[in-house]
């Protein structure tokens, strides 16, 4: 019995190979990871306080935006029509400012498409809603933000850009008081 156990242990230590031919081959496994698009708003559109010439007539004013590389977006009001800034205005006039990240690897060439609501309804206060017909200062300029939702700039891979949104505020007759609405922006790879 002892010799059978010894024979079994020796056989297990030396595996038996079948006669025949074998071969091996290798294939590379690859992936190219593209940084996600992230977008955030860091400013809202605010026309401040406006006085209309006559509450029984329509009025309008235009906000022009300017975003320069590495700078914040600025806003100025122009094309006043039957209205003017309220003399004791205590609200800063600001444009909406959006920052986004995108992959900038030259081998990827990731381009983005930006969709901005063309019209925003501002409701509340007294009388009819006000309509904002949006404009912007695209194409977007280079930006120096440190992070967007945890995503950081990575030289040669992830770049930051920003742009501003303003527009023409159309004030219908009878509209008074505080009016608010929401502007939506979508940034996506093409």
Protein model, in words:
This protein has one domain. The protein contains 1 helix and 14 strands. It has one helix spanning 2-13; strands at residues 38-43, 50-52, 59-67, 73-81, 83-85, 96-103, 112-116, 119-122, 130-136, 141-142, 147-148, 151-152, 158-171, 185-189. The strands form 4 sheets. Strands 1, 3, 4, 6, 8, 9, 10 and 13 form an 8-stranded antiparallel sheet that branches. The relative contact order is 0.25. The model has no long low-confidence stretch (mean pLDDT 88).
Give the SSE string: HEEEEEEEEEEEEEE
Radius of gyration: 32 Å
Regions with little confidence, pLDDT below 50 for 5+ residues? none
Find the count of extended strands (DSSP E, 2+ residues): 14
Number of helices, counting only DSSP H or I runs of 4 residues or more: 1
Beta fraction: 35-45%
The biggest sheet, with number of strands, parallel, antiparallel or mixed sense and barrel status, is: 8 strands, antiparallel
Give the distance, in angstroms, between the N- and C-terminal Cα atoms.
76 Å
Q: What is the residue-mean pLDDT, rounded to a whole number?
A: 88
Structural class assignment: mainly beta
Total tally of structural domains: 1
Shape estimate = elongated
| Overall helicity | under 10%
How do the helices and strands line up, and which of them pair or pack?
Layout: H1 2-13, E1 38-43, E2 50-52, E3 59-67, E4 73-81, E5 83-85, E6 96-103, E7 112-116, E8 119-122, E9 130-136, E10 141-142, E11 147-148, E12 151-152, E13 158-171, E14 185-189
Antiparallel strand pairs: 1-6, 2-5, 3-4, 3-13, 6-13, 7-14, 8-9, 9-13, 10-13, 11-12
């Amino acid at each position: 019995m002892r010799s059978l156990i010894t024979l079994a242990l020796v056989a297990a230590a030396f595996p038996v190979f079948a006669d025949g031919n074998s071969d091996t081959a290798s294939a590379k496994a690859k992936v190219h990871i593209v940084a996600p698009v992230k977008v955030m708003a860091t400013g809202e559109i605010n026309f401040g306080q406006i006085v209309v010439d006559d509450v029984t007539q329509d009025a309008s004013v235009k906000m022009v935006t300017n975003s320069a590389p590495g700078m914040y977006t600025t806003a100025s009001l122009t094309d006043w029509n039957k209205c003017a800034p309220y003399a004791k205005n205590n609200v800063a006039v600001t444009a909406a400012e959006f920052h986004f990240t995108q992959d900038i690897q030259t081998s990827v060439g990731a381009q983005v498409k930006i969709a901005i609501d063309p019209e925003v309804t501002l409701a509340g206060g007294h009388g009819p809603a006000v309509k904002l017909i949006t404009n912007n200062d695209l194409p977007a300029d280079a930006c120096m933000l440190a992070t967007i939702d945890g995503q950081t700039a990575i030289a040669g891979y992830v770049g930051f850009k920003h742009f501003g949104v303003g527009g023409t505020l159309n004030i219908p007759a009878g509209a008074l008081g505080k009016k608010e609405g929401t502007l939506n922006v979508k940034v996506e790879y093409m």
